[in-house]
């Protein structure tokens, strides 16, 4: 049975490519278990993975702001994800957004997006970072002053800022300094986890298939792709998984299901199903 193709996902992917936004890393990923946390790292890709969403994405409770949150649940911190449904009125709205990354990471840049429907977006922001969530440092410019990052010019397109010098942090706090109509935004953090040698590693490869059975060995809901990867990692019978960013549906597959999937060339990835498959080696 063919999985239904999601047109909205296609539109979002095309928009990201058009605006030079968050790039997906279609490489070989390494899954690393550390104290029940999972990290996927591209073996040959630069350090620009998505640390809020995607394979390295944080849980919902790792996104926080100043309490109490607003009365509209569509503006709570979990909706700060750029991969959240891009529909009217969804985005984080508040004086600052704090992100606790899965582990200490090298940070190389940031991406912001506004809140469509109300024409709300931030035009400038500052960033603080911390290794413990208590003691904070400002990211500064070349003159030693607090760096002010350029935000958005509308409520739809992505605005990317790459750091001149990367930083190392476990916590990131973004504070809007100027905005249009209200300080509402979505956020992506670019970078990569700092890995330790000697850890047990399970490797995955990204394959594109024309179809795969909708009946896997398990189906559950997860908040991000990293959590879905962990679910498959801890199940010995699981050979591969797929994840729907919009619905949160996470499905795991047995070796026989993977063998029956029809692999295709990646010239038109928007019309294909992306499957993360376990590898027999980490080369």
Structural summary, described in words:
This protein is mainly beta and 283 residues long. Helices cover 10% and strands 39% of the residues. The protein contains three helices and 16 strands. It has helices at residues 7-19, 225-233, 255-260, and strands spanning 28-34, 37-42, 49-50, 63-65, 92-93, 97-113, 121-130, 137-138, 149-150, 159-180, 184-193, 201-209, 218-221, 240-243, 249-253, 273-278. The strands form two sheets. Strands 3, 4, 5, 6, 7, 8, 9, 10 and 11 form a nine-stranded antiparallel beta sheet that branches. Strands 2-1-12-16-14-15-13 form a seven-stranded antiparallel beta sheet. Strand 7 (121-130) and strand 8 form a beta hairpin. The longest helix is centred in the first third of the chain and has 13 residues, at 7-19. It is globular and about 55 Å long. Mean pLDDT is 79; it is low at 1-45.
* Largest β-sheet summary: 9 strands, antiparallel
Low-confidence stretches: 1-45
Kindly report the average pLDDT value.
79
Helix content: under 10%
Tally of alpha and pi helices:
3
Beta-strand percentage range = 35-45%
Form type: globular
Please compute the radius of gyration using only Cα atoms. Answer: 19 Å
Number of strands: 16
In terms of structural class, how would the helical and strand content be classed?
mainly beta
Order of helices and strands: HEEEEEEEEEEEEEHEEHE
**C-alpha end-to-end distance:** 33 Å
Quick overview of this protein structure:
The chain is mainly beta and 283 residues long.
